[in-house]
Amino acid sequence: MISADHLTKRYGSTLAVDGLSFTVESGRVTGFLGPNGAGKSTTMRMMLGLDRPTGGTARIDGVPYAELRHPLRKVGALLDAKAVHGGRTARDHLLQLAHSNGLPASRVGEVLEKVGLTGVARRRVGGFSLGMAQRLGIAGALLGDPEILIFDEPVNGLDPEGILWIRTLMRGLAAEGRTVFVSSHLMSEMAQTADHLIVIGRGRLIADTTVSEFISRSAQRYVRVRSPQLRGLAALLNGAATGLSGDHLRVPGKTTEEVGEAAAAAGIPLHELTMVEPSLEAAYMELTQDSAEYTAVAS
Ligand SMILES: Nc1ncnc2c1ncn2[C@@H]1O[C@H](COP(=O)(O)OP(=O)(O)OP(=O)(O)O)[C@@H](O)[C@H]1O
Q: What distance in Å separates the CA atoms of residue 231 and residue 235, rounded to the nearest whole number?
């Protein structure tokens, strides 16, 4: 489990992380979402002991990262895939990492196999594509067979095959009971990968919820209803601020049960009764629009 408790980071006049408190549970993929500059990377860096909090704490199974006895056996992380010595081969890079962390060299072959890099293990990392570098970074994260995995924007710049591979891998790691914490600024990607969402904006917590709960909170959800007696139905539901739109009514703030029962009680036949959910993107934009660091100004 990872926990943040009033976690705060200030850089000069910028409050990058502003009193964040949440926990990341094991056995599921938790998506860490927020617009650019929201404070995701800074939060992850503090979890990994790479940045010192200005206030509050980040803990791994109850202790600060710096106090872990065998950090790589507990937490594996992918922060910046390109931050690897380009002159080394993939295999040498992992051997070095294993050696300096007291891990058996036999793990190197295993993780190379797991990420599909066995065939290029003796090639220099400098010539790797972004997708290969991401795989190598993930191999490094898996080296210590850790219970907890932290991935910062792992699908950035990847092609659809690479994205699918990473998604499948993350889901598999969570299914094994591990804690998987993954950041992204892409809602649609997270919707397909994550079970749980932590959404931040301007360093503050906006939501700590499941994907479906996140959507249902959106004010853009409404009941779409068609009836041969549309005007009568509109009059009946007037209190619910209905909108007549073409051949149907839009009723925000009510469930399909409420609309259906009200119509039945008044003897009004219905030809359609549908809950229309906003797209995940729309719900996300709605919740984060005031918290983007740079918001387009309408001219
Ligand atoms: N080392 C630093 N010095 C000064 N300001 C920083 C530093 N690192 C981050 N910031 C600022 O802190 C804020 C949060 O940045 P951070 O990189 O954590 O956001 P993010 O959510 O990861 O964004 P992105 O999706 O663009 O990577 C931004 O305003 C950023 O400019």
A: 6
